[in-house]
Amino acid sequence: MTEKLELLEEHRVFDGTQRKYRHHSETLHCAMTFSLFLPNVEKFPNPSLIWWLSGLTCTDDNFTHKAGAQKKAAELGLALVMPDTSPRGETVADDEAWDLGQGAGFYVNATQQPWDANYQMYDYIVTELTTIVRETLGLTGSESIMGHSMGGHGALVIGLRNPDRFRAISAFSPIVNPSDVPWGMKAFDAYLGADKQAWASWDASKLLASHDGKPVPILLDQGTADNFLHVQLQPENLIAPEGYPLEIRMQDGYDHSYYFIASFIDEHLEFHKTYL
User: Which of 20, 78, 159, 223 has a CA between 20 and 30 Å from the CA of residue 67?
Assistant: First the structure.
C-alpha cells in the first residue's frame, strides 16, 4: 500500500527538516520519490502545505537543492512537498527526446498508448500522494500550489481544477497555453491524442478564461531574458475574467533558470502565506 514509505534522506536545515522518501505508486505502477520540507514541528504542529511542481527534465531534487526556499518556509511555518515530474523505471514508457516521457509528465492523465499505463500524474498528485501526505505524514493544514515551467503549467491546471482545495497559485515562467505552443502540443498529442477538444481541460489559459467558480489568487513571475518566453511560454495568453485576482510580473533581465526562482521565491512564499 501507499503507506509504506522509505525514508532515503533527512537533513536539519534552518530550524526545520528536509526529507526525501520513496514509495511504490499504485497509480503510476512504479517506484516514486518525493521530497518534503517540514518547519519546526514544535513551533508549527500543523503547518500549511505548499506543493511545488518542477519543470522538464527535473526531479524532486531540483527545487530542494537550488531554490533556497527552506529558510523563508521555516520562518513562515510552511511545509513544502516536491513530487517528481513523471513516472520512472525500465518498464515505464520513455522517449529519446528530453521534452517527452520520463522527466516530462506534464501533470496530466494520459489516455493514449503506451503512456496511459503509467502517466497518470494528475491523479498521482491530487489523490495518491495527497493521501500519503495527509494520512501517513499527518499534514492536514491548508494548501496552495506553485511550480516552474512545465510545473507552472501543472500548478495552474491543478489549482484551477480544484479551487475549493488550493487557496493560492503561483508560477515561475509557466507554460500557460500548452495547446498552442510546441512543448505542449508535442506532449498533449502523445499523451492525450490528436483531438484538441480533449486538451482544453489541461490548458490553464482555457480554464482561466472560462472560470466562473471560486477565484483562486494567482501570482505569475516571468523573466524578460527567458529564451523560451516568446515561443513556449507566452504569458500574455493567460487572460482572466474581469476582476479575477491575477498578477503577472515581468522581471527585467531574468532567465529561465533556478537563479530566477531563487531571486523571488521568498516573495512567492509570502504571497502564499497571505492566503494560507
Answer: 159
Q: Point out the residues that are catalytic.
A: 149, 226, 256
Task: Please report the DSSP string for 200-267 in residue order.
Answer: GGG-HHHHHHT--SS---EEEEEETT-TTIIIII-GGG--PPTT--EEEEEETT--SSHHHHHHHHHH
- Helical spans, DSSP H, in 127-227: 130-131, 150-161, 182-192, 204-209
Kindly report, residue by residue over 73-84, the tens digit of the pLDDT.
Answer: 999 999 999 999
Q: Which three cell numbers mark 175?
A: 507554460
Q: Which residue, 175, 174, 179, 228, is CA-closest to 200?
A: 179
Cβ atoms of residues 227 and 196 within 8 Å: no
Q: Name the grid cell of 44.
A: 508549527
pTM of the model: 0.96
94 Rama sector, left if φ>0, alpha if ψ -120 to 50, beta otherwise: beta
